[in-house]
UniProtKB/TrEMBL annotation:
InterPro entries: Glyco_trans_2-like, Glycosyltransf_2, Nucleotide-diphossugar_trans. It comes from Paraflavitalea soli. The keyword DNA-binding does not apply. Keywords: Transferase. Gene3D superfamilies: Spore Coat Polysaccharide Biosynthesis Protein SpsA, Chain A. This is Glycosyltransferase family 2 protein. Transmembrane segments: none annotated. Pfam families: Glycos_transf_2 (PF00535). Residues 3-136 form the Glycosyltransferase 2-like domain. GO terms for molecular function: transferase activity.
Length: 282
């Protein structure tokens, strides 16, 4: 069985599309665990009709954030593999069947591609991201809907880090890779685009500059040694992201400070020198 965990908060209309995309899966051995993070709208009423299918489960709790909701779902999951699907996204009908067909006895995690749909209807493909770890280049994708994990591994690494303000998926991915490094279990990549990320006008962490800045600082403090050992240029990328978030928050001094950190770790990335002028004066 595959367990799908969907956290939701005040998305009464959007979550119905997500649920229907699971009910329309060609692969039938699944459970959907919807974790309501204390919604104040009619999310519970919107979900109620779908509970007639015993594979759909609903948990309502006090508001404590996305990471805690994902972990709550993980505690209630019973499948051999778990995955996470946001309540504003949807899965294509062959999503789970394709994943199931690629799972082997020695599969630890499995990643699939995604489509991103913008409000104007434009669709773009999102394949694997490149990582440089343990002396080799690997291609994986840790975002919701794209990552499938053996449940016992998720439990063993203690799930998502609920103290982080952002970057929870990359943080989970780094800890998964560290765990798998000492395991005979393998990573599997399926280069098919099987889920759709729907971009809308609602609140998203991607544009919450305060959370992105704070989460980036937390993330680099937590993983600096690990990243420095494996890919110093990635440290520069993270500092650049913190700098940009600070700039969007009109914190010019902070934005320049983090840009200089980025330059120190990757001095040949010339665009950051231009950004210093922009962030300081424009």
């Amino acid at each position: 069985m595959i367990s799908i965990i969907t956290p939701t908060y005040n998305r009464a209309v959007l979550v119905q599309t997500t649920i229907r995309s699971i009910l329309n899966q060609t692969y039938k051995d699944w459970e959907l665990i919807i974790v309501d993070d204390g919604s104040s709208d009619n999310t519970e009423d919107a979900i109620q009709p779908f509970l007639a299918d015993e594979r759909v489960k609903y948990i309502k709790k006090h508001n404590s954030g996305q990471a805690d909701s994902l972990n709550t779902g993980g505690l209630h999951a019973t499948g051999d593999f778990i995955t996470f699907l946001d309540s504003d996204d949807e899965a294509y009908p062959h999503w789970l069947q394709t994943v199931h067909d690629h799972i082997k006895e020695d599969t630890g995690i499995l990643c699939v591609g995604a489509m991103r749909k913008y409000p104007n209807g434009t669709l773009t493909r999102e394949g694997m991201n490149e990582f440089r770890f343990f002396g080799k280049t690997i291609y994986l994708k840790f975002t919701c809907g794209s990552l499938f994990i053996r449940r016992f591994i998720f439990n063993d690494i203690k799930g998502y880090d609920a103290t982080l303000r952002s970057n929870i998926q990359t943080d989970l991915g780094y800890r998964l890779l560290s765990w798998l490094r000492h395991s005979p279990l393998k990573t599997v990549v399926v280069n098919d685009y099987l889920v759709q990320i729907n971009v809308h006008e609602g609140e998203r962490i991607r544009t919450n500059w305060g959370r992105r800045r704070e989460g980036g600082i937390q993330f680099i403090k937590k993983h600096y040694g690990f990243i420095y050992e494996n890919d110093k240029k990635e440290i520069a990328n993270i500092y650049s992201t913190i700098a940009y978030s600070s700039y969007k928050l009109k914190q010019r001094n902070e934005s320049v400070k983090y840009l200089f950190k980025a330059i120190r770790h990757n001095p040949v990335r010339w665009v950051n020198y231009m950004r210093v002028l922009k962030y300081a004066f424009l």
